[in-house]
User: Which sequence fits this backbone?
């Protein structure tokens, strides 16, 4: 009994290990960008299908790889598109999935599946969900999802309004964004303040009879600045009529330096032109530099002020002919003052008009110089 349980455990573990080895890529150099080690990568699930195949891409390939030789053989077991149940004259796309033996080859490490998705000749345009499911014996199926764009939607959805209130239309009216939310206009776009973590908008049809189908809305922005999420009754799309549906946008800012980042809320409406609402969100407050005065700066100013006052006092005493140095240190102080005074006079600019030789000649008989002769107080040092 124990050996049987151990054998069952080994078989189950081995099967799970082999099943987790599947990788799917969009090219032979990108194997694993769609499914890596059995895990569907972001952007390829039904809820967040992000890859949009343009109308011109009628064929693309999926490269499937498992653990070589011993892993289960994963094969495409089914495929679907959004309007496959509609009558032929209402379908937008023809789809088929086949194994491409020419690319796969006999000894190739991967199997290539050719996905044909040809848009039919219809006026207008739409965006459809597409998927392919891969399976292998003893493994859970793995479904890859993407979006297919056909045509060029030109008609807007008349009657569809989006507003901040249950009866308002500040964001969109008659399926067309207003000036504040239109990315093609030069008007200043709407900006959500830094103190708002979320906003709530209402979607509804103004006509009591008309209804329209919406795909799940999504937001395009820089995920290094914020990682917005959606909540509310309109989060998953579906049918929209006159009954109001709520859509709450949670911004989830990742920075707080006051940066102003653009967001685009995309609401896809099959058979009609998509609604793209452009606006901005401020994350945090702009940090202003604060000037700080330390004690070192204060002492520096006080020292400089004291030195200037002392120089002015010495200069004023010199002009008056008074001795500011008295007492036992008078002689040393006097020598210091005389030295400073000689230095100060040597720093005086020489005037081309008042030449020292002329002054010496004119005032040679003058005795008892009090320091006032030989320079202009106002022109050289300012008013004292």
Assistant:
């Amino acid at each position: 009994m124990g050996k049987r349980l151990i054998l069952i455990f080994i078989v189950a573990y081995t099967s799970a290990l082999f099943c987790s080895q599947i990788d799917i890529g969009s090219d032979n150099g990108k194997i694993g960008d769609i499914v890596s080690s059995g895990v569907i990568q972001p952007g390829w699930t039904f809820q967040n299908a992000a890859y949009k195949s343009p109308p011109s891409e009628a064929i693309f390939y999926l490269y499937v790889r498992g653990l070589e030789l011993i892993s289960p053989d994963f094969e495409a077991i089914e495929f679907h598109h959004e309007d496959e149940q509609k009558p032929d004259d209402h379908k937008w796309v023809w789809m088929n999935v086949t194994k491409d033996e020419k690319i796969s080859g006999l000894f190739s490490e991967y199997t290539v599946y050719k996905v044909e998705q040809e848009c039919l000749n219809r006026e207008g345009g739409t965006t459809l969900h597409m998927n392919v499911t891969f399976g292998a014996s003893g493994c859970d199926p793995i479904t890859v999802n993407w979006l297919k764009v056909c045509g060029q939607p030109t008609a807007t959805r008349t009657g569809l309004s989006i507003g901040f209130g249950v009866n308002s239309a500040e964001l969109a009216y008659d399926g067309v964004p207003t000036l504040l939310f239109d990315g093609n206009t030069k008007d200043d776009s709407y900006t959500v303040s830094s103190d708002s973590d979320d906003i709530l908008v209402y979607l509804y049809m103004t006509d009591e009879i008309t209804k329209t189908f919406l795909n799940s809305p999504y937001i395009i922005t820089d995920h290094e600045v914020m990682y917005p999420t959606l909540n509310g009754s309109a989060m998953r799309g579906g049918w929209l009529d006159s009954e109001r549906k709520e859509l709450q946008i949670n911004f989830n800012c990742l920075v707080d330096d006051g940066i102003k980042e653009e967001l685009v809320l995309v609401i896809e409406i099959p058979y009609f032109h998509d609604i793209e609402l452009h606006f901005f969100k401020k994350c945090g407050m702009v940090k202003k530099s604060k000037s700080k005065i330390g004690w070192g700066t204060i002492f520096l100013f006080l020292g400089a002020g004291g030195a200037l006052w002392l120089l002015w006092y010495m200069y004023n005493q010199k002009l008056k002919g008074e001795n500011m140095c008295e007492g036992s240190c008078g002689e040393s102080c006097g020598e210091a003052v005389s030295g400073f005074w000689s230095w100060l006079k040597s720093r005086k600019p020489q005037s081309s008009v008042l030449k020292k030789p002329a002054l010496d000649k004119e005032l040679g008989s003058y005795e008892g110089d009090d320091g006032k002769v030989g320079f202009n107080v106002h022109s050289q040092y300012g008013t004292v």
Notes: The radius of gyration is 42 Å. The helical segments are 2-19, 101-104, 295-320, 330-346, 356-362, 377-381. The longest strand covers residues 125-135.
